């Protein structure tokens, strides 16, 4: 599911025509429903892909986007995050820092991503909003963030 979502996201970064994306969305829906049964995995990935594709088609940001926040609790966990989880973006919170992965369009999908981090013994939560500090960090040069 993660690689399928990444493939769709990579496709959208090529700036395809909205009509083509709309047709892709219809094809995916048809394929999922072709056997007239929607499995739990199909329902889960469709919730995520539908949000991703719909936001691209409408060219408007979907307000309901979920974020997975990882907060390392010790130096070993910080090392795991910085060396093994490049998809996470570091940002300042209060007196420390946390890492963000997202946005996601389906809470169920975000929960699965969060569970993956928990399986690595990392503290992880799903949230609908982020602290305001992330806005100031995201506006900085990406190389500064990646080197911290």
User: Secondary-structure element order, as H and E?
Assistant: HHHEHEEHEHH
Structural class: alpha+beta
Number of E-type strands: 4
How is the biggest beta sheet arranged?
4 strands, antiparallel
Give the overall silhouette: elongated
| Strand order in space, largest sheet | 2-3-1-4
Low-confidence stretches: 132-148
Summarize the structure.
Helices cover about 55% and strands about 15% of the residues. It has helices at about 1-10, 20-35, 40-60, 75-85, 105-120, 135-140, 140-145; strands at about 65-70, 90-95, 95-105, 125.
Description of the molecule:
The protein has 148 residues and is of the alpha+beta class. It has seven helices and four strands. It has helices at residues 2-12, 18-33, 40-58, 75-84, 107-118, 133-138, 142-147, and strands at 66-71, 89-93, 96-104, 123-127. Strands 2-3-1-4 form a four-stranded antiparallel beta sheet. Strand 2 (89-93) and strand 3 form a beta hairpin. It is elongated, with a radius of gyration of 17 Å. It starts with a helix and ends with a helix.
Keyword list:
disordered C terminus, alpha+beta, 148 residues
List the helices and strands and how they pair.
Elements: H1 2-12, H2 18-33, H3 40-58, E1 66-71, H4 75-84, E2 89-93, E3 96-104, H5 107-118, E4 123-127, H6 133-138, H7 142-147
Antiparallel strand pairs: 1-3, 1-4, 2-3
């Amino acid at each position: 599911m993660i690689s399928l979502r990444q493939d769709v996201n990579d496709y959208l970064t090529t700036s395809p025509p909205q009509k083509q994306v709309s047709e892709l969305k219809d094809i995916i829906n048809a394929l999922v429903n072709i056997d007239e049964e929607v499995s739990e995995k199909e329902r889960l990935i469709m919730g995520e892909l539908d949000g991703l594709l719909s936001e691209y088609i409408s060219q408007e940001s979907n307000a309901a986007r979920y974020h997975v926040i990882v907060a390392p609790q010790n130096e070993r966990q910080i090392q795991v995050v910085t060396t093994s989880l490049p998809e996470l973006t570091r940002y300042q919170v209060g007196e420390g820092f946390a890492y963000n992965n997202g946005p996601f369009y389906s809470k169920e999908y975000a929960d699965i991503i969060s569970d993956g981090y928990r399986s690595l013994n990392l503290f992880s939560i799903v949230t609908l909003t982020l602290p305001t500090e992330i806005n100031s960090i995201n506006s900085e040069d990406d190389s500064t963030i990646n080197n911290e």
